[in-house]
Amino acid sequence: MGLRFGTRASDSPWVDTVWTCTSERVAEMTSVATVCWGLVFWEHEGRAYAGISGPQTGAGAAPVPEGATFVGIEFAVGTSLRAVPTAALVDGGVELPEVTRRTFRLDGVRWETPHADDAETLVDRLVRSGAVVRDPLVAEVRRAHRPAVSGRTVERRFRAATGLTRGAVRQIERARRAAAILAAGVPVADVVVRLGYFDEPHLARALRRYVGRTARHLRTGTGGAIALNLDHPTTS
Predict the structure, then answer these.
(1) pLDDT along the chain (236 residues), means of 10
(2) Radius of gyration of the chain measured on its C-alpha atoms
(3) Alpha helices in 46-165 (DSSP H)
(4) Cα–Cα nearest to 62, from 11, 3, 134, 144
(5) CA distance 236 to 217
(6) From 139, 206, 218, 233, which residue has the greatest number of CB atoms within 10 Å?
(7) How far from chain centre, in Å, is Cα 97?
(8) DSSP 3-state assignment of 208?
(9) Are the C-beta atoms of 76 and 134 separated by less than 8 Å?
(10) How many CA atoms lie within 13 Å of 196's alpha carbon, on the beta-carbon side?
């Protein structure tokens, strides 16, 4: 029992992942650092809710309503809401008003609540309306291209669009990747080499800070409920 996750990638350049989750006999979970902002929809005891989640700079504890079902859309790094800059969402979030099981209100407009298999339809509508925007420079940097502007300009635009520095994004993504491959059974020493950590204590510190777990917890599946899907296959 705990959190039962499902996660899928997306063909949309605006979306990082789409996920589902059901909570069973769990009241608290470990939240994990993430570089994405997202829209989250959930139902609990017959009532519907929706919210905006922001990037998280570290692990922490978060309450979980027992018996709730969730659908989440994690947006690609560099995207943002017109009405709420991503930088304003870091380590926080916003609960949306006037939510029903069929619709929710965002940016002054009422939208249909998505299911996991049609999340991109909602995203396309948000993009066409201008409710979701992005900085193309960030996408260019994420593809390892070198834009024709100064490094200072890149860093300023990156932080304005994401609320995080490029260094923070790299560290968080690397720690999440380390957690996934440790959970898949890869030895700690191999993870250190594969992901470029200085040594095992360096990896251990990153896991504590960003994932809230030790390597042993991840390898044995212990430590309680965690907001990270560690059950899907992982490739190198």
Answers:
(1) 87 96 89 97 96 97 92 97 94 95 95 96 98 94 88 94 96 97 96 97 98 95 89 44
(2) 18
(3) 119-129, 136-142, 151-162
(4) 3
(5) 21
(6) 218
(7) 22
(8) helix
(9) yes
(10) 4
pLDDT in tens, 89-98: 999 999 999 9
CA-CA distance, 27 to 110, in Å (whole number)?
31
- Residues 123 and 129: their CA atoms lie apart, in Å, by 10
The sign of the dihedral angle between the CA atoms of 77, 78, 79, 85 is positive
User: What is the token pair recorded at 44?
Assistant: 């609990």
Give me 223's structure tokens. 């430590």
Tokens of 178: 């380390």
Helices (H), 163-234: 166-183, 188-195, 200-210, 215-220
User: What distance in Å separates the CA atoms of residue 236 and residue 234, rounded to the nearest whole number?
Assistant: 7
Residue type, 145: H
